[in-house]
Write a structure and sequence with these properties.
about 190 residues, alpha/beta, 6 strands
């Protein structure tokens, strides 16, 4: 099984995340794409972060019709803050016959040198990279395990969605109906 790991806070998940996950599932020779809900990104602030189980629930609502997309809570039980290299080791132990690739944005590729044990990750895993607005070509772009994909450029952010919800805007088409209904019913981000 070829699995693409799409890590994120998904705070909340939106159509940009889904479009990218779908793109990689269809164009990157992957059997599945796992949306790995990160409890806490070590490089990001924790403020305004919805509870990890609530974010996982929103991801599950968003992908319920997609046969190649799965959610993963693998990082929930790992020590915090968690690092990708630890998650990869855990996954390799749990799924020894699966081959994992990382799906990351070009902005993450720019800062990849800051990731814990990035050399090990780069030598042992393929990085499938999607373009991000304003990203620059860096040291890792030409590595043999880095594949720059021609994915659509998507400029929707979870920050934009949280801000809009707080302002009382109707953003249902940015997150999908089932996710929107849950956000409103549970008063998330208000």
């Amino acid at each position: 099984m070829q699995i693409g790991l799409f890590f994120g806070s998904f705070n909340p998940i939106h159509i940009g995340h889904l479009a990218l996950a779908n793109y990689f599932a269809e164009y990157a020779n992957l059997n599945e794409v796992w949306l790995v809900v990160s409890p806490q990104n070590p490089l990001k602030e924790k403020s305004q972060l919805l509870n990890q189980h609530n974010r996982l629930h929103l991801v599950n609502l968003a992908i319920q019709q997609h046969t190649k997309l799965r959610s993963s809570s693998i990082e929930f039980n790992l020590p915090q803050p968690n690092y990708t290299v630890n998650t990869l080791a855990h996954l390799k132990e749990k799924f020894p016959n699966y081959k994992f690739s990382l799906i990351i944005g070009e902005d993450n590729l720019e800062s990849f040198g800051k990731w814990r044990n990035h050399e090990y990750i780069l030598e042992n895993y393929q990085l499938l990279v999607y373009p991000r607005p304003g990203s620059k070509k860096g040291d890792f772009h030409h590595h043999p395990n880095v594949k720059i994909m021609d994915a659509p450029l998507i400029e929707i952010s979870s920050t934009f969605i949280r801000k809009g919800i707080k302002e009382g805007k109707d953003l249902r088409f940015f997150v999908g109906s089932s996710v929107w209904d849950e956000i409103i019913a549970s008063h998330y981000y208000q």
